[in-house]
Write a structure and sequence with these properties.
The chain has three domains: 89 residues; 100 residues, OB fold (Dihydrolipoamide Acetyltransferase, E2P) (Beta Barrel); 193 residues, no CATH class. Helix 12 runs antiparallel to helix 14. The strands form two sheets. It has a five-stranded mixed beta barrel with strand order 1-3-4-6-5. A two-stranded antiparallel sheet has the order 8-9. Strand 2 and strand 3 form a beta hairpin. The chain has 19 helices and nine strands. By secondary structure, it is an alpha+beta fold.
Length: 504
């Protein structure tokens, strides 16, 4: 029986082998992330060495060399996580924790986040020190910006977790191992960061200011979320309502938002008379710039990579395989930072939702008879909602302890309006650069849509039975659902491989 399964793995098509290699690499990374650094690092070396020995023997005896390659990719993923973590810690500020230091030079490498009384930002230490840190200070300094070169004196502290939130791991995924609170800071120079990132961040700040001039709260922060994925200034009550109604994905800049924006840009370029080949490259440049503009979060990068691969497939006339593209995008991102697979909540949601669309859309499209359409395409919206959110259920339950029961209803009522809201809001902001009153007048329609969407979210989110709370059983339900979904995933792949074998 085992021999039969092995023979199926050997006879897979090239795309299927490519897919399986990536899955095994990601699996190695995921398993390795649960092990402590010292144990995992040496265990990774041992597994990798034995994998190459096995591959060498298989090659000599000309047996199942493909199986040996599969094992190597798994071991590479396992070792890669440990090597990355070892390298990052060795070149980090971890060893400075507990020490008060003076006249430390650094460059701000993120957009400062202003709260009521404080401001915080990420900074990259300059020699003789190294690594990234998080600085938190008061708001007496209002002119911090990306690319500022600063000199500060303060105590380096290890991040602490709080309220069941693993804050230490949250920062560590960005290779931040130290916090400096309320240091003495002086700004030495401006514009010392990457020039393109600096330019796009300035554009982002300017865009946000124009939104704030045209729209009042909470419409302003909601539109900021839709267009730029910025939910830091979102009203806390509205954020809770978004979670309770299962509509938080609207302001997470997923593939849905980027598809809308990219399609609008592509159509605009074609309307200007630009030929498709040139429009293609301009759209690629736009996607890359937009990813940087929005802060290059994991979910946006994933959507950006998939968007570029999609339009590339259209250009060269090759079929677009969304599943392989999704895993390829994940592979590229995890090569850059393997920690996001386990510790980045946004990446996990984005990946799981897209995976749900790949594997569950045919079932729900058939169930809701999507081909027949309906008012505002409600059948398509509800099928897409069920497909995407079914696969994110385990993650939501583990993170929040509850799931939204009314998510399909709120998504059906809102999603069809979002493209028009984003388009009208975007045009209103552009017009406001010419004339603020022109932007306000044109933005009135977008304001009405934003207000309607927020009212729907608040109305349904206020229902007592809007969510199903699992309480202390959240982790148990998470593992049970994860087991069910993995079994379903394996079953679907097995059926597909059997079909391909019969076809051959």
């Amino acid at each position: 029986m085992l021999e039969k399964q092995f023979s199926k793995l050997l006879n897979l098509s090239v795309p299927e082998k490519f897919f399986l290699l990536i899955v095994l690499f990601l699996l190695g990374v995921f398993i390795s992330s649960f092990l402590p650094l010292n144990l995992g690092f040496y265990l990774g070396i041992i597994i990798l060495v034995f994998s190459f020995i096995f591959a060498f023997e298989e090659f000599l005896f000309k047996k199942r060399i493909i199986l040996a390659i599969y094992l190597i990719f798994f071991s590479l993923g396992f070792f890669y996580f440990q090597f990355y973590e070892f390298y990052q810690q060795k070149h980090s500020s971890l060893f400075l924790n507990g020490q008060p230091l003076s006249n430390v030079e650094a460059i701000i490498v993120s957009l400062p986040y202003y709260q009521e009384k404080t401001v915080e930002f990420e900074a990259k230490l300059l020699p003789p020190y190294q690594g990234k840190i998080l600085i938190k200070t008061n708001q007496c300094f209002k002119n911090f910006q990306y690319g500022d070169k600063i000199i500060f004196s303060g105590k380096f502290e290890e991040p602490k977790s709080f309220n069941d939130f693993d804050y230490k791991s949250y920062l560590a995924k960005s290779n931040i191992y130290s916090i400096v609170k309320y240091p003495d800071i002086e700004i030495q120079n401006h514009h010392q960061g990457f020039w393109l990132k600096d330019l796009l961040y300035q554009l982002r700040i300017s865009f946000q200011k124009q939104i704030d001039k045209i729209f009042k709260e909470p419409q302003s922060s909601f539109l900021n979320g839709l267009l730029l994925g910025d939910k830091r200034n979102l009203d806390k009550n509205l954020e809770t309502m978004l979670q309770r109604t299962g509509t938080m994905h609207l302001i997470a800049l997923s593939g849905f938002n980027i598809t809308i924006i990219t399609a609008a840009v592509f159509s605009f370029l074609l309307s200007l008379g630009i030929v498709r080949p040139k429009a293609f490259w301009l759209v690629v440049i736009f996607i890359l710039g937009f990813v940087i503009l929005t802060g290059a979060s994991a979910s946006v990068v994933r959507a950006g990579i998939m968007g570029i691969v999609f339009i590339l497939s259209q250009k060269i006339g090759k079929p677009y395989q969304i599943r392989n593209t999704l895993f390829f995008a994940a592979f590229i991102m995890i090569l850059l930072n393997p920690k996001i697979l386990r510790f980045d909540f946004g990446f996990q949601l984005s990946f799981a939702a897209t995976l749900g669309l790949v594997y569950l859309s045919p079932f729900f499209n058939h169930l809701f008879k999507v081909e027949k359409g309906g008012l505002f395409k409600w059948r398509e919206v509800i099928a897409t909602t069920f497909s995407a959110q079914t696969f994110v259920l385990p993650i939501l339950i583990l993170r929040f302890g509850y799931i939204s029961i009314i998510s399909p209803i709120t998504n059906v009522l809102i999603i069809s309006l979002i493209p028009y809201t984003m388009l009208l809001g975007f045009i209103a902001v552009l017009l406001s650069y010419l004339s603020l009153w022109l932007g306000i007048i044109f933005g009135f329609a977008a304001h009405l849509l934003l207000s309607l969407e927020i009212k729907i979210i608040n109305l349904f989110g206020s229902f007592k039975l809007a969510v199903l709370n699992f309480g202390k059983y959240s982790e148990l339900v998470f593992w049970l659902l994860l087991l069910v979904f993995i079994s379903y995933f394996v079953y679907k792949q097995k059926r597909k491989y059997e079909f391909l074998s019969i076809k051959k």
